[in-house]
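Attaching the record inline, Q. Sequence:
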Amino acid sequence: MNESATLLRTVLCIGILTALTAGCSSNQGNDAASLGGATAVTTTSSTPTSTGAPRNAQGRIEKQFGESAGLTDQGTSQPAITFVLDNPRVRPDCTGFWQFTPNGVYLMMDIQVETAANYTTARTGTAGYSVPRTIDRNLSAWSWKAIGPDGNVVSDLVSTAALNCDENNTDVFKDPFSPASTYQGTYVFDIPAGSTSIFLDFPGKDIGWEWKISTSLTSTDTTGAPDGF
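Structure, as predicted:
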């Protein structure tokens, strides 16, 4: 075999090997791309979706005192309004011009409300309820209810005695809220001693919140209890 034939065979073999190698590399790249695409789809599809805050048997969102509650704007998925109920305390009497005796005990609580910049146009829930129409004026003291020691709902927590208390400061909730604003107030409720919770429902809007009250806070011993040490 002459040198020209040998050289030709060598060139052909190198060409064939190069083509085979390129083909294998191309197939491996396609396989990797396919695997990467499948992984991306799997990751995306496995991302959990929000189902909203859990509700109790009465359909209310249970909250702790000091924990934020509120309504989310469906357009931004950010809070349109946030309120915090805090510092619950029970008193057998209060400061007032007249000396009234409560039907039960005075439950005092502080509340702070914050609205977002888009509050007036915000909508909430799958039905797209207007946030202002849902909550404006509905944080007044008259909107709240309690669960008494017998398990029954106590609807009227604003007695004449409670209205007489100087600590009562909820006038700010009588008017519509403004956007990008902060409000503070103090509730004074007249509740039965031993009440277990206080709650706020928005009828027809499928939303409500409930706060458990410590039994030691509203025990029957609180009514008219003498001071001592």
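Residues 52 and 216 are 32 Å apart (CA to CA). The helical segments are 3-45, 131-135, 160-163.

More tomorrow.
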